[in-house]
Design goal:
The structure holds two protein chains of two kinds. Chain A is built from ten helices and ten strands. Chain A is an alpha/beta fold. In chain A, the strands form two sheets. A six-stranded mixed β-sheet of chain A has the order 6-7-8-3-9-10, sandwiched between helices. Chain A has a four-stranded antiparallel β-sheet with strand order 2-1-4-5, with helices on one face. The model of chain A has no long low-confidence stretch (mean pLDDT about 90). Chain B has two domains: about 45 residues; about 220 residues, no CATH class. Classes of the chains: A alpha/beta, B mainly alpha. At the A-B interface, helix 3, strand 6 and helix 5 of A face helix 5 of B. The complex binds adenosine-5'-diphosphate and magnesium ion (MG). The site of adenosine-5'-diphosphate has 10 residues of chain A, from helix 2.
Chain lengths: ~250, ~270
């Protein structure tokens, strides 16, 4: 804990609270993600992990404060946050109407930066190789790809504008175990190589262990346990033990 | 006891009515914010010209066959009806001008509006709802792109600009349908038919046709975008968004058509 407070903080939430009608989903959550850390958020389905992400992204209303590099995030200044940010969605969320390379280069083409189509395509092809895909894939439509390939393309899209901050929502859900572990490995490699601060949400401990330095286990919208990913299996926390135990094959 | 029950029922009814009014008002409020957001942002860069081009093809060009066929058959049927109706009062000679005026003032914009509502409103709603459900709209936000500006503005602007054009084409084809039936089947003299078609058309008939079409275009695209954009999760959400868009667009077209007709008749 003490060495954490020395590091600069990328994202901090203070008393974050989210309710739907009268049901409280996130209950006064205090979270700090230091620069360069891969933070994992784990917990059973329906505990509010995705909702937490939506709050930080400003895609939903919430109570409490969220800071990005010490700046309070409000409706008006989210732009500074999205500039250095990338996100890998649970279902990849690739744009159906655009080709693979147009998807990857979307932020480059549509941002204020002037970049030619051929330059953008070149960068996209470079990123495709980076995530382990052949450059021939660039002309295909997202619907022509397998689930694992879509995840890789979505990761390339998130990386296109060289973000310093990356969010992952269930990066391996819906993939077979082999594809899952190769995606985990890819994420872990890229995040460490480019020193990207990341937040990984998953109900799958193997993803968390493969990618994350630190873990937070969410229970009833609150932090149930926190610690190093490697220490997770030695925890005495009741629900976490049960959770990990139930997954052992 | 009985009196109490009655009082309760009244309260419940009032409550329901009040809630509905509140819901409706807030819905109207969000609608107005939604449209004005789309229109005001569309004039600021970046302009997403490609998106506008795509919508011209998808909305404008691809609607032509539907609009043309509908107008053609309706024009033909209208000529037959007016002929048989008119023959009861010895007014068969009114066929050309009634077909033309009826099409311009009423049938052209309303039919075009309803056909395009069925085609475009549903397609927009389904597309945007699918994008909402599969988190593509959230993805746009995280890619630092305003989804209302990128997705909604082109669809609303192109539909609003192109419905008058489509209606203009529909009017011409509809009137031609009437001409064809009248000359081929009812024995009208072609050159006399054309002459009496144009004799009674006023500029006001044409402008009212185009004004109506512009407003219908705005309604059609707004309903499609609004319900698609707000779709709830799941496959049910997409179906519901599509139905809501088409039904509300169609009702709004017919209701506003009456209001517009009354307004334009007065002046
Ligand atoms: N838009 C919404 N409206 C109402 N309830 C919601 C909404 N989104 C999520 N919830 C509720 O919030 C809780 C947490 O959901 P979520 O964050 O998606 O869970 P997970 O941890 O599996 O990602 C669930 O109980 C869900 O029912
Ligand atoms: Mg989730």
């Amino acid at each position: 804990m003490t060495d954490q407070s020395d590091k600069k903080i990328a994202i901090e939430t203070i008393d974050l609270l989210k309710r739907f009608d009268n049901e409280i989903v996130i209950n006064k959550l205090n979270l700090r993600i230091p620069f360069g850390t891969s933070m994992g958020i784990m917990g059973p389905s329906g505990t509010g992990k995705s909702v937490l992400l939506k709050c930080i992204l400003g895609l939903t209303e919430y109570e409490g404060d969220i800071f990005y590099e010490g700046t309070l995030l409000e409706k008006k200044n989210r732009g500074i946050f999205y500039k250095n940010f990338g996100m890998l969605f649970q279902g990849s969320a690739l744009f159906d109407s655009l080709t693979v390379w147009q998807n990857i280069a979307f932020k480059l083409i549509n941002s204020a930066k002037k970049i030619s189509n051929s330059e953008a395509k070149e960068i996209a092809i470079h990123l495709l190789r980076d995530v382990g895909l052949d450059e021939n894939v660039c002309k295909l439509m997202p619907s022509e790809l397998s689930g694992g390939m879509q995840k890789r393309v979505a990761l390339a899209r998130a990386l296109a504008d060289k973000p310093s901050l990356l969010f992952f929502d269930e990066p391996t859900t819906g993939l077979d175990p082999l594809t899952s572990s190769s995606i985990n490995e890819l994420i872990s490699t890229i995040v460490k190589r480019d020193n990207i601060t990341s937040l990984i949400i998953s109900h799958d401990p193997s993803s968390i262990i493969a990618i994350c330095d630190e873990v937070i286990f969410i229970e009833d919208g609150k932090i149930g346990w926190r610690g190093k990913a490697s220490k997770m299996k030695f925890s005495n926390h009741q629900l976490l033990k049960k959770y990990l135990g139930s997954l052992q094959v | 006891m009985n009196w109490n029950k009655k009082k309760n029922l009244t309260l419940i009814l009032l409550n329901t009515l009040g809630n509905n009014i509140i819901n409706l008002t807030s819905l109207m409020g969000s609608l107005v914010i939604f449209v004005s957001h789309a229109l005001t942002r569309s004039v600021m860069p970046p302009f997403f010209i490609k998106e506008y081009g795509k919508q011209i093809v998808v909305i404008g060009w691809a609607s032509l066959p539907v609009v043309g066929l509908t107008a053609f058959f309706t024009g033909g049927a209208l000529a037959l009806q007016i002929y048989s109706g008119g023959s009861r009062l010895n007014a068969e000679s009114a066929v050309p001008s009634i077909v033309a005026i009826g099409f311009l003032r009423e049938l052209g914009p309303v039919l075009c509006g309803l056909m395009v509502a069925g085609r475009v409103s549903s397609a927009i709603a389904a597309e945007l709802a699918t994008m909402r459900v599969t988190e593509q709209i959230d993805a746009l936000v995280t890619l630092a792109t305003d989804p209302i500006k990128y997705l909604v503005a082109p669809r609303i602007i192109i539909t609003t600009l192109f419905l008058p054009i489509l209606t203009g084409v529909g009017n011409i084809i509809g009137i031609y349908g009437g001409y064809l039936v009248s000359t081929e089947k009812l024995g009208f003299n072609p050159s006399m038919y054309i002459e009496s078609t144009f004799k009674y058309i006023e500029m006001g008939d044409i402008t009212s046709s185009l004004i109506k079409a512009t407003i219908f275009g705005l309604l059609i695209s707004t309903m499609g975008c609004f319900f698609g954009f707000r779709a709830s999760k799941g496959a049910l959400g997409v179906g519901r968004a599509t139905t809501n868009a088409v039904v509300s667009a169609s009702i709004l077209i017919l209701a506003s058509n009456y209001l517009l007709t009354e307004l334009m008749f007065k002046s």
